Amino acid sequence: MIEKVLIGAAALGIASLVGSAIGLIIKKIPHKWNDIFMGFCAGTMLAAAIVGLLAPAVEMTSPAGWWQVIVGVVAGVALISVLDYVTPHLHRLTGLDMEKHHGDTSVNKILLFVIAIALHKLPEGMATGIVYDESNMSNAYAVTISIALQNIPEGLVVVTPLLMIGVGYARAVLIAIAVAMLEMVGVGLGFLLGGLSGMFLPALLGMAGGAMLYVISDEMIPETHAHGFQKQATYALVAGVAMMLFIEAAAG
């Protein structure tokens, strides 16, 4: 199982680095293709959150214990909501939208940006690591694939604003590597947390699912519907859901 966790963590890190490499090369992606790909990623994450996280969490509990999953979902949403409030909106820093968050101007831009990425990446990695369980590896594969796909455009978002505010290529590369490593560390922490706290696993899965649902609804879907390509993004979202359902069925 440790080997599988390491492979999953490496997959997330490599996907993030691939996105960062694309960002270093092309610097800017057309809104249409960004929205289509982000829509597809939102679909994969939506299916993974429900089928790979929340449904198994419900199955682990008795009818009287369903509240554990609800508490986990609420905790996951609250965690990401607080992080979203106190850290800058990543897409605003790239110039993709004009949403302004509480922390946008309070600290040095570069330092604040790096902190924001770290705070967003660790929960993502932990959401992946928590799912690794020998009894149901299909869920782990589904969640890993969905977050890895999302990491490609997110990796692009990492380097673009850094280059825009004058950070050199070498430093941007080092930051991109550090961000990828943070998510890989998150996978390990999530796996350890899930293994040490088996009785809390339904709540932990619910927390991971709630965090993913918040990101999908607050970050990804509004982003894909903001530039006139919402139809294409919607079709891509449905395609992403269908692909993850196929992967779940094939892996099971």
Short recap of the structure:
By secondary structure, the chain is mostly helical. Helices cover 81% and strands 0% of the residues.
Tell me about this structure:
With 252 residues, the protein is an all-alpha fold. Helix content is 81%, strand content 0%. It is built from nine helices and no strands. Helix 5 (109-131) packs antiparallel against helix 6 and helix 5 runs parallel beside helix 7 (169-196).
| Biggest sheet details | none
The counted number of beta strands is 0
What average pLDDT do the residues reach?
Answer: 78
How much of the sequence lies in strands comes to under 5%
User: Rg from C-alpha positions?
Assistant: 17 Å
**N-to-C SSE string, H for helix and E for strand:** HHHHHHHHH
- Give the structural class: mainly alpha
Number of helices: 9
User: How much helix, percentage-wise, in residues?
Assistant: over 70%
Low-pLDDT residue intervals, each spanning 5 or more residues: 93-98, 101-108
Query: Span between N and C termini?
Result: 17 Å
Q: What's the overall geometry?
A: globular
